[in-house]
Amino acid sequence: MKKLYRVFLWVREVAEKQRRRELIKKIAQRIYKEKELEDIQKRKENLSSQFGGEAQRFSLPAWYMAQFLQYIDWLREEENRKEFELKKLIDEEDAERRLYMEAKRGYDVAQRFVERKTAEERKNFLKKEEKLSDDFVLVELRKKKED
Length: 147
Prior knowledge:
Elements: H1 2-57, H2 62-146
């Protein structure tokens, strides 16, 4: 029976560790997307401020300004796409966190169950040992009385 309890506990532990790995992977993906989004935002801000200064100091050709504005628009679209992907990853991370917490609870419950069963078995073993010891003492006492 002890092996069965150990296997049960091991299965729960493996499930909990797998969920933890999945959660860590989702967190890493979210952090990476946040950095990508931050880089795009910085690039857009730098280019916008740089372009504003250059446009005022120099008379730039219309084709150059049109290309620059198209690039800024593309950066905005990219920023929106990255924000959408980030929201999706945050939702996935939350779902994975719930699954991890459920697996963690399952492992904790299994651990307490195994500890309780082990304590019961130890208690029963001690009772049997005590009874055997008492029986042995009674047999010895009878032998002494008979002698």
